[in-house]
Amino acid sequence: MSARHDASMATGAPPVLPARESLWRVFAAQFFSSRLAVFGLILLIICLAMALGAPWISPQNPYDIASLDIMDSKMPPGSANMDGSLTYWLGTDGQARDIFSAILYGMRTSLFVGFVSVSAAFLIGAAVGLVSAYFGGRIDALLMRLVDIQLSFPSILVALVLLAVLGKGVDKVIYALIAVQWAYFARAARGAAIVERNKEYVEAARCMALPWHRILRRHVFPNCMPPLMVIATIDLAHAIALEATLSFLGVGVPVTEPSLGMLISNGFEFLLSGNYWISFFPGIALALVVVAINLVGDHLRDILNPRNEIQG
Amino acid sequence: MLSTIVRRLLQTLLVVLVMSGLVFAGLYLIGDPVLMLASPEATDAQREEIRRALGLDLPLGRQYLIFLGKAAQLDFGNSFLTGESAMRLILERMPATLELATLAMLLSVLIGVPLGIYAGLRPRGAGARSIMAGSVLGFSLPNFWVGLMLIMLFAVMLGWLPAGGRGPVESFGPLKLSAFNWEGLKSLILPASTIAVAKCALIIRVTRAATRECLPQDYIKFARAKGLREKRVLGVHLLKNIMIPIVTIGGLEYGQVFAFAVVTETVFSWPGMGKLLIDSIITLDRPVVVAYLMLTVAFLAMLNLLVDIAYTVLDPRVRLEAA
Q1: Cβ proximity of B272 and B216 under 8 Å
Q2: Looking at beta carbons, which residues of chain A come within 8 Å of B278?
Q3: Does the structure's ipTM exceed the value 0.90?
Q4: Is residue A120 scored above 60 in pLDDT?
């Protein structure tokens, strides 16, 4: 937002604060008009708060071996430990970890991987897309062919092969997720920037002999934000689900930093013997996070896509 | 038309060629299969021996040319593990994935299209809203978790269906299928439904959007004005016109199902290509991984072409023109 403010300062025009504020208000009013989307947003905020506050909220540190009592392993939901000081509301897993605590910590890893990878993919993709649209010609052709090839491969395959090569680890999962996601942002940024490129304010900025990277960063980029924000939201859900899938397949995060997918995977072996809760509750948590983000993203797409404006 | 198809075929070939370079470079530059193959006590000389036997001591460019030459004859080398031809291994597993993907897509279209049309007809009704909310759920829920829950419900708790495996197969020429006997079909239901949950959600959304776009058109109004029964208006006039996006998405998704079957096949220990890929990735069995990737690229590219051709058949207004 401040970028647009600076842009107007740079071109000597008075800042257009009031108009922008009402634009925000229109946007907020539109967003809050959908009960489902508001529900998704609230759910997402709760999940975020629980993940961030995990060390303080969780009744047990599930990765402190000393606090685990192996006698308490595979306890069904609602049972208490020996001296009654702790109730395992969601049960315990094979190593006597409290499932609820494990979910809070797992959500931390899942959300962290999601946010970091989407932010990085956003920046890389937007840069590629903007440069591609601004310069056109051969650079554009080359970069977009690269995007086409990338998108012609299903993301799970690319991530699988990359992780097979890189090995396990939170950082490696993030690299793999960036690699499968940047192309979506690049394509969307290019599409939006091609429209913006020929508008008068870009011409004006060019006339002022501003360097190309400044024009892109301060003038074109802020105006390409709406479609990119939609993709970022939907991609966040996608990234979290993909990370869970990779961890489930055994090529994702290491056992020491389990994500929700890892927890589900750990419970898989117990599922067949009827200890459903070890897999079930982490799965519910994962589903809640992904559904919440998708509800928000789905509505964002409806209100930010100019083609849908008439339908409301 | 013919020249366009030939041109598209050449383009497809080019894409496959570029991909082969990327796959080759990616997989062959990093990771040393010799370390996986040789026993930990092997001497350096023994390792060198293995390296030479596999042709891994040659310069990279030469390795790539040899690889290309053999790949042109569909020979991707032998599996490092079993010594069998990588291509044979994959083709052996292909029918299992094929029937899984086909049944899954069939289910999603048969369920998704009617629901989508319904949601498109009365977009503000309670039924349509719950269908749409359900579809958000459908593509949000991670596929492997849906599979686990189905196993929990139908295999562990109710005991109706098997939790994994493929059941007995019957031979139909070169194809070994399990869909045509009761036991085999029973083991096919859960994995196919798992995939269908996500794909159905997508088909619903596409159908709904297309229906809403078509309904206000003149030919629908005219058909209604003629006094045609609603069944015929929807079943013929509407359905014909919404088929194009459905065929496009359906066709492309069919390809994706082939690739995404990796996850479902792992959950249900379904002995298809995806399970083979995961096993090969974990054991660094390069020839199998490379063969799988190359086949998938070629398959997806061909599917894109077929979808384009299907357009012209469905809609005479669309012509494959020399772009």
Answers
A1: no
A2: 160, 249
A3: no
A4: yes
